[in-house]
Amino acid sequence: MVSKEFKARLKLDPRPNYKIAWMAGVNPTVLSQIITGYVRPKRNDPRVIKVGKLLGISPEECFQKEAS
Q1: Residue 61 — left, alpha, or beta (φ > 0 → left; ψ -120 to 50 → alpha)?
Q2: How many domains does the chain have?
Q3: What is the pLDDT of residue 67?
Q4: Which residues are CB-neighbours of 41 under 8 A, at least 6 positions away?
């Protein structure tokens, strides 16, 4: 699951989510589904990492920490 930091950065970015998705090479609908939790990406999902890179966050920061 994506982290709160990922969602917050996406929300605070001045660019619309669909433009960020296009720039990252991700389908805008898929990005929306990831954000809402309809699609639950696995850790190290390249789609999430590409978007995170555009938002200026590391791959580790893109994903929620797993409960031990």
Answers
A1: alpha
A2: 1
A3: 62
A4: 1, 2, 34, 47, 48, 63
Q: Residues 8-55: pLDDT tens digits?
A: 999 999 999 999 999 999 999 999 999 999 999 999 999 999 999 999
- Which domain CATH number covers 17? 1.10.260.40
Q: What residue has token string 């990252």?
A: 24
Q: Please state, in angstroms and rounded to a whole number, the distance separating the CA atoms of residues 38 and 63.
A: 15
Q: Which residues span the domain enclosing 44?
A: 4-62
The pTM (predicted TM-score) of the whole model is 0.89
